[in-house]
Batch of 2 targets.
Target 1
Amino acid sequence: MTNSETKATLSFSDGSASLEMPIYKGSVGPDVIDIRKLYGATGMFTYDPGFMSTAACNSSITYIDGDKGELLYRGYPIEQLAVNGGDFLETCYLLLNGELPNAAQKTEFVDTVTKHTMVHEQMQFFFRGFRRDAHPMSVLVGTVGALASFYHDSLDINDPHHREVSAIRLIAKMPTLVAMAYKYSIGQPFVYPRNDLSYSANFMHMMFSTPCEPYKVNEVLVRALDRILILHADHEQNASTSTVRLAGSSGANPFACIAAGIACLWGPAHGGANEAALSMLEEIGNVDNIPEFIKQVKDKNSGVKLMGFGHRVYKNYDPRAKLMRETCYEVLNELGLQDDPLFKLAMALEKIALEDEYFVSRKLYPNVDFYSGIVQRALGIPTSLFTGIFALARTVGWIAQWKEMISDPEQKIGRPRQLFVGSPKRDVPPIAKRG
Ligand code: ACO
């Protein structure tokens, strides 16, 4: 970040104060005004619910240009990473270390991650404490947080080696935990990881093998899962990543911080959207019902939204949605499901929405979740686990952002301010005198 020669001046119409503030330039994207001295100089805060205009940190990991529909991990376009960038673990290496690995670095990284895929044997007792019908996200919030009670030897956040080991452990163990959550929910035995398989193939093995029958690796489906993971790996300062940073700003351990990120991701406005998008398609049920559904979406009082559409940052087609749509075709072709009614319904809904003035004028385009649910369903992943797969993919982004924050000399405990609109100081009345 560099200082701009231009400065911003804030002056009040009543002439009570005037403040000159520095402007910083990033490598790309909007400049920022440094308002840190504002309160000291004026006694006022800024008001920005939802962080519409506030940069809470500087970062060199992921960049989004929402108007162009561009997503870059460490400068590389998502389209290139998804098509020519190797597998998910290469993306993990890139996000964590800033550069793509060479062949030797890749081998070493894959080896290290692979050797951490098992979870402490006692972890299974955590799972067994949950009801079988518990939502996998609640199971993941609990079990990922619980990792902190097993891996004490990597909890010193001031030790770079500990941070590295925790990062690897989280990336390596998330697939095992997600698969365990699934197996527990359907009453099947947990399946141990297999180190001879790739990251994604091993996950499919832990999900779909049983003691009676091994999972037969299908490369098209493994590639599809790998693409889901790459596309969801990071997305700059979204709600769950900001949650991870905020939790981590107090010095909390990385397992606790990632558990906080998972809790935030669970919401339907964020990671829960893929599950909500599929449920929405199932509810619409038939192409003939689309006009009535669109009518409800446009009615502000109905509370109905077109799930999988719209994004805080993308005001153009989400680049991940294009890639996911491609994968959708590949997977459905591979499985002979070209005529899948839900996919047809999704295509019809997308077409109608993209031509409708309501969506056009608000720049509402499909986001990645519009298609990822259909792909995951075709892979055999149950709807309730969709957000869990998102959490698995996003773990690397969260941990890369957490590591970046810990080593940032400007980092401070996150402590937003407020505009207080409640009662001023008053005396507690005796109970007989209360209304
Ligand atoms: N369906 C119908 N109308 C919508 C939708 C939608 N999906 N999204 C936004 N709008 C409307 C809003 O009602 C608002 O209309 P108005 O100007 O008449 O009041 C306008 O478009 C602007 O929307 P905001 O809510 O201000 O946009 P915001 O940036 O706050 O919200 C969000 C973004 C939360 C993603 C929203 O678009 C949404 O809820 N989408 C559906 C859920 C979804 O798909 N989430 C996934 C996000 S991507 C991810 O997490 C991977």
Target 2
Amino acid sequence: MTATLTHWINGAAQPGASDRFGDVYNPAAGEVVARVPLASSDEVESAVQAAAEAAPGWAATPPIQRARVIFAFKELVESRKEDLARVVTREHGKVLSDALGSVSRGIEVLEFACGIPHLLRGDYTQSVGTGVDSFSSRQPLGVVAGITPFNFPAMVPMWMFPVAIACGNTFILKPSEKDPTAAMMLAEWLTEAGCPDGVFNVVHGDKEAVDAILAHPDIAAVSFVGSTPIAEYVYHTGCAHGKRVQALGGAKNHAVVMPDADLTMASDALIGAAYGSAGERCMAVSVAVAIGDKVGDALIEDLKPKIESIKVGPGTDGEADMGPLVTKAHYDKVRGYVDIGVEEGAELVIDGRDLSLQGYENGYFIGPCLFDRVTPDMRIYKEEIFGPVLSVVRAPDYDAALQMVNEHEFGNGVAIFTRDGDAAREFANKVEIGMVGVNVPIPVPVAYHSFGGWKRSLFGDHAMHGMEGVRFYTKLKTVTSRWPTGIRSGVDLSFPMMS
Ligand code: NAD
């Protein structure tokens, strides 16, 4: 008997009413573990109504009281993080330690959100003119929505709603329909932490729910994280409906390995960055750019035994380094890309395609794959694979490597491995990428900085969390005031001067 999930609307579980459901799988076993309701526009409407009714009261709640709710919620998530991680592992497939790490990164955003009252403080200037004072403040937008991907079912929602709620907005989350249970746990715990009904709502669904969110006149802003084609669609459709939109998309993150790099350190870092979470991370490194053939040959030699020793298994196996891919469709897509790479003439140094695990024959497991001599015209270089496939590209020199990175359509993350401070500084300045690592393979900014790429990895003007998140979820208002005492009367049509 598989469980049937509900939506979470106005502080309570709401069974799906559309008669459309999706299957949620345990990808290690290839078995359905739950059914998720797929909302119609009517169900989105009832979530918007609940959020809109709660909005004025929540906006008027003093920021410190809102922060106390987030603080109580943080305590609950902290004390139950293993439960949350287990659910992430069950529905996503990533190994438990990795799931736990992602929950911890989400908790860091909660910690940041507890301090948001400090960031909502405005500026005040006394006497901008004679007897005239001016102050500015940041006010919430009202009802806002978040649409999230499968690869971080707890962390990516936590990039969004704690900041939005702490800023005084009410929130509707449309999580990925592939691993939706984590969102429901967060909703229940937020209510338990004292969050008023209607402030946080979860509506499950697919394109129909997303389209209803994008078109709804009472939703002021939409945050999206997912693949680039959908990010672009969400951005343009949301903007056409007058909304503020931040839409984070896909990635193809390069790591440039310079001839002076500590090669062992670089290859160790590449293993974690390429194969951690089976490559299903938007900050995964999927391209290693070796400067010169000598570096390329040495890198391949160093990587090979390390990759061969990666243990693939179900996420619940404490010995496993890498779990399965999220769905059968995604498994087919990743496997298909490895076939394409071979057809394109790249050298498949390690082939993980035919991995079979005893007892898990129906799971969506693929072993780590390594390609050498990949070139920028190949599809496996240009397109996001989102699986455990690392491509080594050989560039003649640093300038060619920089140009290659800058010409790629994506601009999420990049890393350079070098001992040369000048080269690292010049690279960090000139590279057309939003998040840059120097000897750091996955340069994910901490919660009080902001997360976001450039080019076709982010549509919109704001990155997530940190000050960028606060700016996204608030409107600036500036009040200029003068009190009647001593004001001269009389009509004056000239341009206002503060003198
Ligand atoms: P996806 O684009 O398929 O889905 C993301 C969300 O959009 C889901 O909630 C889904 O229900 C919805 N959606 C899917 N198809 C839709 C459609 N046709 N119309 C409207 N909505 C639709 O992405 P995914 O497969 O869940 O996640 C993986 C992708 O997310 C990868 O491309 C990865 O790089 C990206 N990602 C990016 C970041 C980042 O910060 N840039 C972070 C995590 C994941």
